[in-house]
Amino acid sequence: MTTLVSPRRRFLRRFLFWSCFAGGLVLVAGYVRFATALSVTEAGSPPRTDAIVVVTGGAQRIGDAISLLNADRGRRLLISGVNEKTGRDELAKLNPTAREALACCVDLDYRARNTIGNAIEARRWVRRHAFRSLLVVTSNYHMPRTLLELAHAMPGVRFVPHPVVTDQVDVSGWWRDWHAIRLLVPEYLKYLVAGVRSKLETDPETSRLSVIIGGRKPVSPKPGDQIGPEHDKRSRAPSPAHGA
Prior knowledge:
alpha/beta, five-stranded parallel beta sheet
């Protein structure tokens, strides 16, 4: 016995099918636009800004940021999202020309856990020093989301992007490089989520969606002056024997 499908159900099925199809096309077109807009060559000499902020995630990012600081592209540099076990000595070993700058003009942020946390900590730093413009250093594929989060956190600040291009990811051939696709597709989806979240919430520091999406708060609950290699070593040191 055959079951007849009502015209209404048939219409709903077609409507859902074509809606999903159109949504998929929009996503694909957006991804193509996102990927093709990424910088494929190293940025030239940027204009001078009040300060520089670099988001950790690659040694080349920090090296480029310190070079920009030495070239007087900004008065101070914030390295955001530093590993708790990494101190100034380790950074100086990786960047020998940065020892003098690290001693005078570089601030280390250990609290940020993700890109939202980078924006929150950068905002605190910017407000503390009353900066009005920032030179932003991060990887080319990470730059759109970084700028989006920073602009959401600091709408009154001017941002100048300085994308870092690495040999590890060939974004110029994103359609034929499987490694690039695996990196760019999740980054594009994160960018879309960040755009929607920024429309729904006004302040990233009080964002509930960021906790749901990231699984934890975007910044460490520890005070900034209690995080770092010195505190890590101190906490791991054996306690003295009783009665000593």
